[in-house]
Amino acid sequence: MRFLRSLPALLLTAMPAVAHTIFLGNYADAIRAVDFDPASGVLGPDRAVAPLARASFLDRSADGRFLYAVAEGKPGLLAAYSIGAEGALTALNTRTSEGSGPCDIALSPDGRLVAAANYGGGSVIVHRVAADGSLGEKAAFFQHTHAANAHPDRQKNPHAHGVTWSPEGRLLLVPDLGGDRVYLYARNADDTLAPNPAQPWLALAPAAGPRHAQFSPDGRHLYVINELDNTVAVVAYDPAAATFTVIETVSTLPAGGFAGFTKTAEIAVRPDGRFVYASNRGHDSLAVFARDANTGRLTPRGHVAVPANPRHFALSPDGRWLLSAGQDADTVRVYAVGAETGGLTQVGADLATPKPVCVDF
User: Fold this and answer.
1) Separation of alpha carbons 267 and 164, rounded Å
2) CB contact at 8 A, 350 and 9
3) Which pLDDT belongs to residue 16?
4) What is the phi-psi region of residue 148: left when phi exceeds 0, alpha when psi lies from -120 to 50, beta otherwise?
5) Distance between CA atoms of 236 and 136, rounded to whole angstroms?
6) How far is CA 36 from CA 49, 52, 303, 343, in A?
7) Average pLDDT of the chain, as a whole number
8) Which of 23, 55, 66, 141 would be a feasible disulfide site paired with 133, CB 3.0-4.6 Å?
9) Strands 47-51 and 55-60
10) What pLDDT was estimated at residue 17?
């Protein structure tokens, strides 16, 4: 669930004890669904609900009626589904992503546009959403050309890696791992997009490798996770000027460092804005940070071990639960989130599921 869409910054209050369907993207052969009990944090067994190979990242519409997926390939695909009872999916249509390896997808806050990033192609594509939820005509396509060449292996070409809409839906942000930039695209009144005239991109440190980004619930700060140097960039956002400024960069690793190879993956801000979480692949942990509500700055609060290769994790809309997808462990694990400490405590048994890479609430 991207930016918690229509939900406000909630206090950590209990949700009704009604089973909620969670969708799982993966590197297997079908999108999968699982029932989640928001009272106990217990997951039911998973089930295949739509055949789609390498359907990695997913995003659900705010009204819960539609699901959108990327299927990684050469070229990649974007797929739209209607959601039925018990999470049953009915295919609506597909569109080419016009690039290889699409690796992220996100609906605009008003649900009228859906954007996807092509990692292999180094590009971003945006489609309109039709009234029936299907993927409509193309609204924009941008081919990145800049490569940072600061990392010896990963930055020889542009690699668009994420798509994040600003809270008010005026800007589309695209972290590009190969270029050490977060590209900024402004949305026009007719739902087309163009490079943001006030600031076409935000530059990050050489060899940082920006991957994904998430706004704080109050919309004042952006948190960018950098895959290659294992950091989080804290960024101030001025919506009136449509500009961004890096104010600090913090490590996702323990203070003593880590001797093995590791890289980051996902970033999430708790719905009340008090804590930020970031995943490390190799170190196989979630870094926990306390967030200063006024400045946006982060203070490390420790690490929690998670199943191997935590490519993605997600917080429940009320912030009480965190689900971590261990791609190499074929496992999703549930953690209870400490209301005051932000700490994570494992709940129940791990869910066995093939190659999970995305958890969608």
Assistant:
1) 12
2) no
3) 45
4) alpha
5) 34
6) 16, 22, 25, 21
7) 95
8) 66
9) unpaired
10) 56
Distance, in Å, from the CA atom of 329 to the CA atom of 308, rounded to the nearest integer, reads 5
What is the signed CA dihedral for 352, 355, 357, 360, rounded to 10 degrees?
A: -40
Burial class (CB in 10 A: 0-12, 13-18, 19+), 64: exposed
Residue 58 and residue 104 in contact, taking contact as beta carbons nearer than 8 Å: no
Q: From CA 14, how far away is CA 5, in angstroms rounded?
A: 19
CB atoms within 10 A of CB 75: 15
What percentage of the chain carries pLDDT values higher than 70?
95
Percent of the chain with pLDDT strictly greater than 90: 93
SS3 string, the chain, reads CCCCCCCCCCCCCCCCCCCEEEEEEECCCEEEEEEECCCCCCECCCEEEEECCCEEEEEECCCCCEEEEEECCCCCEEEEEEECHHHCEEEEEEEECCCCCEEEEEECCCCCEEEEEECCCCEEEEEEECCCCCEEEEEEEEECCCCCCCCCCCCCCCCECCCEECCCCCEEEEEECCCCEEEEEEECCCCCEEECCCCCEEECCCCCCEEEEEECCCCCEEEEEECCCCEEEEEEEECCCCEEEEEEEEECCCCCCCCCCCEEEEEEECCCCCEEEEEEECCCEEEEEEECCCCCCEEEEEEEECCCCEEEEEECCCCCEEEEEEHHHCEEEEEEECCCCCCEEEEEEEEECCCEEEEEC
Average pLDDT over residues 11-35: 81
CB-CB contact of 113 with 91 (8 Å) = no
pTM for this prediction: 0.94
**Given this model, what pLDDT does residue 19 score?**
86
- What torsion do the CA atoms of 77, 80, 85, 88 make, to the nearest 10 degrees? -20
Confidence of residue 94 (pLDDT cuts 50, 70, 90): very high
CA 353 to CA 361: how far, in whole Å?
Answer: 16
Are 177 and 121 within 8 A, CB to CB?
Answer: no
Per-residue pLDDT at 352 exceeds 80 = yes
Residue-wise over 276-286: b if at least 16 C-beta within 10 A, else e?
bbbbbbbbbbb
Alpha-carbon distance 323 to 331, whole Å?
10
